[in-house]
Amino acid sequence: MNSTIESNVIDCISPIGPTPTLLEDAEVALEKMIHQEIQLVKETEELFKRQVEHMELIDKLRGSIPNMSKIDLDTKRLSSLVESSSTLVEEVCCKFRRIDLAKARVDDCLTKVSDILDLETCRAGVVTAMESKNYEVAAMHIKRFLSINQDELRKTIRLLSGGSGNIPATIKTIGDTDSIEIATQNQSINLKTMEQALDELSRTRAELFALCRDHLIQAIKDENTKDIERYFKIFPMLNEHQEGLRLYSEYLQAKIVMPTIQADDNSNQTSKTPKLNVQADKLAALFENIAKLVDSHHPLIETYYGPGYLIDVIRIIQKVCDRLSRKILEEFRNETKLQSVAKIVRGFTTKNLDLSQAYSAIQSGRYLQSNSEFEIAKAQYYSALNNLDKASLPEISSGLTQMMIDLNRLNDLF
After folding, report:
1. Spatial distance between the Cα atoms of 219 and 254, rounded to a whole number of angstroms
2. What pairs with residue 168 in β-bridges?
3. 355-364 vs 372-386: helix axis angle to the nearest 10?
4. How far, in Å, are 197, 231, 247 from residue 208 at the CA level?
5. What pLDDT, on a 0 to 100 scale, did the predictor assign at position 356?
6. Can you state the angle between helices 150-161 and 191-222, rounded to 10 degrees?
7. How many whole angstroms separate alpha carbon 219 and alpha carbon 226?
8. Cβ of 274: how many Cβ atoms within 10 Å?
9. Which of 21, 82, 238, 295 keeps 20 to 30 A from 266, CA to CA?
10. Helices 241-269 and 310-336, axial angle in degrees (round to 10)
11. C-alpha of 14 from chain center
């Protein structure tokens, strides 16, 4: 190979003859080609080594071909099993869905039959309770009657009326003592009787509601606490919460007025209490009486009506509280004559004011006695203190501090 390269190099030399430059270029080219040859030899040796490794891998793969065929067969078999299992599960789920649907229908039928049987029980219980004037028991039967879906029950009765006209009582759930007793007696329920029972219970509910309302109104007039509580707790069982709360709130409104009047009388009889504090005492007594009233009657409302209904009573009581509060504040404005004082202050001039004289007048009438001289002095006092930078006043020393304290007290009262 070296001789071939040398001959190629000699052939490339110009026929004119070799020159030093051409020889150097030929030597450089020769060295490059020798280097490339060495690299090619190394790469060829590496390829031969890899060929041996590749042949070993090929031999191993040939030995694994039977195993791959087995894996393929196992995979196909597993796929078939999964597909058959999926089909079986789908069939089972479909059957379960049908069972659940049938169970729901059976439960619905049992519920409706139970309602029909309870309807007859409620009817008999209401008649007996009304005859004995046991309104609480009658209201309990009415409550059970109202918990029944009457529209669905009437629809069921109409559907069943197209058949034999009677429902065997033996289809009621086994395990219930009432159903066992009825089943042994082979009794049946007449559908026409059920229609009559629905109408009769509806009328009885209206009658019981009117009766309890009249009795509660009369008990409120007579202030019979026992009867008030007795009839008040019947209204929620008749699903008449708002009417019961309205009547009971009227009863509480009447109780609010009495302690307020007593507090006014006691305040007027107390000679040591200044007139400035009379209205404040009235408001405090009013709010305290209302708070005690709500606190004492709160358990009764929460027990029989449930949580959330107390706010309805408070809304009604709030109207009375606002009316009485406005009345007390109006009395305060009339006694203190705030409007006339404000008018005098706004129209009073600030020239030549004697602050000490105004302060003396205020000291002599600290309790807002209604006389014209005091009103004028008070106006002077306010104008002077509000215009200290404008009025020509003498030197103010320690007396100014006390006057400012008195002014703050008066402002708090206004």
Report:
1. 13
2. 188
3. 130
4. 16, 10, 16
5. 59
6. 160
7. 9
8. 11
9. 295
10. 30
11. 107
Q: At 140, which amino acid appears?
A: M
CB 353 within 8 A of CB 383: yes
Q: What is the DSSP letter of 175?
A: T
Amino acid identity for residue 228 in this structure? I
Separation between Cα atoms, residue 111 and residue 208, nearest integer Å: 27
Is 308:401 a contact under the CB 8 Å cutoff?
A: no
Please count the helices (runs of H) and the strands (runs of E) in the chain.
14, 2
Query: Hey, what amino acid is at 45?
Result: E
What gap in Å lies between CA 175 and CA 181, rounded to an integer? 10
Place of tokens 């009227």: 250
Under 8 Å CB-to-CB from 146, ≥6 apart: which residues? Answer: 205, 238, 239
pLDDT confidence bin for 57, thresholds 50/70/90:
confident
Q: How many Cβ atoms from other residues are within 10 Å of residue 340's Cβ? A: 13
371 within 8 A of 400, measured Cβ to Cβ? no
Rg of the Cα atoms in the chain: 54
Distance, in Å, from the CA atom of 349 to the CA atom of 266, rounded to the nearest integer, reads: 42
Task: Report which residue type is found at 106.
Answer: V
Exposure on the CB side of residue 41, measured as CA atoms within 13 A? 7
The domain limits of the chain are 2-92, 114-226, 240-335, 337-413
Bigger pLDDT: 228 vs 390: 228
- Average pLDDT for residues 106-131, to the nearest whole number? 85
CB contact at 8 A, 179 and 172: yes
pLDDT tops 80 at residue 46? yes
Give the integer Cα–Cα distance in Å for 155 and 151. Answer: 6
Q: What is the model's pTM?
A: 0.54
One-letter amino acid identity for 129? A
Q: Within 10 Å of residue 240's Cβ, how many Cβ atoms?
A: 18
Judge whether 256 and 320 are in contact, CB under 8 Å. yes
Structure tokens at 129: 């309770």
State the Cα angle at 122 between 202 and 133, rounded to 5°.
Answer: 80
DSSP per residue, 129-166: HHHTT-HHHHHHHHHHHHTS-HHHHHHHHHHHHTTTSE
